[in-house]
Write a structure and sequence with these properties.
about 230 residues; alpha+beta; 2 domains; 4-stranded mixed β-sheet; two-stranded antiparallel ribbon; Stage II sporulation protein R; membrane; transmembrane helix; Spore_II_R
Length: about 230
């Protein structure tokens, strides 16, 4: 009988119970930290809103090579140069995305003709597809500017099988480099872009906007639940 009472006493030892609660709390806190401390960076609502604001004001140029061979990649740049040079003249006095869109749509047959001429002039028989559509882009660095990932409207020039690496720039406002060795966007072009964007949007592109990190803790609630 005394042995039985002793056994019950050991099983209900308050010190051991408290120790077990502490261990349990420690494990729960570790799991909580791993799962619930969420840095709200590029996926945050604010970042998404900024990306959408930028996308609402620009049109990108997206030239996709036939393949990743050295010759096809070189051809891609020549096609890009021809298209950029032709469209730069047409965009000279355009100050709105809507007007730029109208000019692009009207000139798609002409853009296709220009791209095909560049392809034939360099000895290739590839076809080319030209369209204006919404396209997802990952983070892209262009000169000293960084554009966040997301969906953007883009003039797409697909050469041949369009299975190679792509080249891109911002067609409106005109930021495309005619000289590909030039790695800094001119101040005049930046000024045009700045006029279209909010300060937050423009600073994000220039890398001046700090990424906001939000951390949520619920330790007190967990402690209350356990004790």
């Amino acid at each position: 009988m005394s042995r039985s009472i002793s056994t019950i006493h050991k099983r209900s030892n308050p010190k051991r119970s408290n120790r077990n609660n502490i261990y349990l709390l420690f494990i729960i806190l570790i799991v909580f930290l791993v799962v619930n401390i969420m840095p709200m960076d590029s996926c945050s609502a604010d970042s998404k809103q900024i990306q959408e604001g930028i996308a609402n004001e620009i049109i990108r140029l997206h030239v996709i090579a036939n393949s990743d061979s050295r010759d096809d990649q070189a051809l891609k740049l020549k096609v890009k140069d021809a298209v950029v040079k032709a469209m730069a003249v047409k965009f000279k006095n355009i100050n709105s995305k809507e007007r730029a869109r109208q000019v692009i749509i009207k000139n798609i047959p002409e853009i296709k003709k220009i791209a095909l001429h560049a392809i034939r002039e360099n000895g290739y028989q590839y076809g080319v597809k030209v369209s204006l559509s919404n396209t997802y882009f990952p983070t892209k660095i262009y000169g000293d500017m960084t554009f966040p990932p997301g969906v953007y409207e883009a003039l797409r020039v697909q050469i041949g099988g369009a299975e190679g690496r792509n080249w891109w720039c911002v067609m409106f406002p005109p930021l495309c480099f005619v000289d590909t060795t030039y790695s800094i966007v001119p101040k005049e072009s930046k000024h045009k872009l700045k006029k279209l964007l909010t300060n937050d949007e423009y600073n994000t592109i220039l890398g001046k906007e700090k990424v906001e990190v939000k951390v949520k803790f619920r330790f007190i609630e967990i402690i209350k639940d356990i004790f």
